[in-house]
Amino acid sequence: MSGDGEWDDCDEGRSFDQPKYDATENSVQDNDTNGFDNYQSNNGFGDEYQSNDNGGYGGGDDGYGGGGRGGRGGRGGGRGRGRGRGGRDGGGGFGGGGYGDRNGDGGRPAYSGNSDPSMDQVKTDKPRELYIPPLPTEDESLIFGSGISSGINFDKFEEIQVRVSGENPPDHVESFERSGLREEVMTNVRKSSYTKPTPIQRYAIPIILNGRDLMACAQTGSGKTAAFMLPMIHHLLDKEDSLELRTRNPYIVIVAPTRELAIQIHDEGRKFAHGTKLKVCVSYGGTAVQHQLQLMRGGCHVLVATPGRLLDFIDRGYVTFENVNFVVLDEADRMLDMGFLPSIEKVMGHATMPEKQQRQTLMFSATFPAEIQELAGKFLHNYICVFVGIVGGACADVEQTIHLVEKFKKRKKLEEILNGGNPKGTLVFVETKRNADYLASLMSETQFPTTSIHGDRLQREREMALYDFKSGRMDVLIATSVAARGLDIKNVNHVVNYDLPKSIDDYVHRIGRTGRVGNKGRATSFYDPEADRAMASDLVKILTQAGQSVPDFLKDAGGSGSYMGSSQFGGKDIRDSYGSRVDAQPVALEPEEEWE
């Protein structure tokens, strides 16, 4: 968790060739030496970025992958050897002195020189910088080319059952053309190459268009962002004549737990509002406040934000909620856990926030445990619940494999897996930030271009790491929980749980980074009997639900478990006061199945 109270996690098509800036709290000024584009070609692996004295991508002591004082290592390869990020000559960066001349991370020592992070007790303060992110692209091909195309299993969505509960829910829709969305919105739907809605979109769009609050639970990669963004943009366009064009007080507030997820939602919002007068803005920690405010002065109808920066803007009086029509909590189970709940209560209880009867509140997630539903009910009014498929269940398009691997044999097993097939598009989850950096260094040393992302990296470094992975510059991304929530990364072919998470819900979110929108994916997990025994029974259940084989060692270790996914839908609306309805997506001439 970062210093501003936000969880630490850019989307496809973000342009890194915009003018670069040097910022202060009161001014933003051009500066050509602080960007990502100071590089020169070399005959080694990939590009070698030229060193300079002012930071930036590949430059100076603090640059992302810069040569540092030695002017030696380049991102994408040192001179002649290795494929990691270049570090200061002999002195640190990724992996410490052992890899200093070829695998560093901007010359900032990660460790004191030991090759194993578990032996290094040196603790350094998290660095800070005044970061100005690249300006959002205006290139239409990039705006609409960033999404994940539907895969060969997309039509299986037709067979997924949907449970709906609440008072008088509206009927679902069968197509975008019959959804009632305005033509401006439909134009952008077509430009996004959306042919037919996913189950959550079929139900959520009419519910939101009918003015109802919503709690929506659907598997990862099922189109939840479009499900709430499309009808909200339609709503604002319906009242476009009454909107303040240059307001900084948004009509839609979307709160996300991670910075990278906020960036991604912002990009999706800009896509669906393209060609209209609506302005979509994003605010998150680790970036210059004045830069974000400057962009908002041009108008902010939709604000996507992380909780810490949103509260900061409210407290300083930069933003009020007086215009709010919609509040969205994305990854709502995380937003309402103990880490974020106080911040959400402050947002929802702010003096300028309309009462819940006067606004629409929407909550979306892949998992909705009963205790989170209890908390959510405080902020929702006469809401409808939509549970798609096996709620909280793992996507059946992901091939899941569990290996029995003791702690000190994991590194060798990971190398074996990467050597055994195409490593490109491999996302590896680890428990600690220190191990993320160490493994990234080690994998680079063994000829797998690798980067890392975690909460102690500067925001510039985090965005660049994601950009490198998405663009294919780096084959492997080592991550802590920062990347587990909601991120759509087009080229994730394989998720590896090097360290299993502590909860089955987090497992679902992690493996959901692959196998999205009907595409096939792979997930491999290392099960350490000393550390992961508490997860065994829940893993057995979730593998069984998804039709996956369960290894004997897991069966032997598993018990009854606490995972609520044993029933067809993994639970039900805890209110259970109006009853519920189950809709089967239409399959030729077969009637809808009633919920009992």
Describe the structure.
By secondary structure, the chain is an alpha/beta fold. The chain has 3 domains: 104 residues, no CATH class; 208 residues, P-loop containing nucleotide triphosphate hydrolases (Rossmann fold); 171 residues, Rossmann fold (3-Layer(aba) Sandwich). It is built from 16 helices and 17 strands. The strands form 3 sheets. It has a 9-stranded mixed sheet. Helix 14 links the parallel strand 15 and strand 16. Helix 3 runs parallel beside helix 4 and helix 7 crosses helix 9. The protein starts with 20 loop residues before the first strand and ends in a 12-residue tail after the last strand. The N terminus and C terminus are likely disordered. InterPro entries: DEAD/DEAH_box_helicase_dom (IPR011545), Helicase_ATP-bd (IPR014001), Helicase_C-like (IPR001650), P-loop_NTPase (IPR027417), RNA-helicase_DEAD-box_CS (IPR000629), RNA_helicase_DEAD_Q_motif (IPR014014). Belongs to the DEAD box helicase family. One of its GO terms (molecular function) is hydrolase activity. It comes from Anopheles gambiae (African malaria mosquito). Keywords: ATP-binding, Helicase, Hydrolase, Nucleotide-binding.
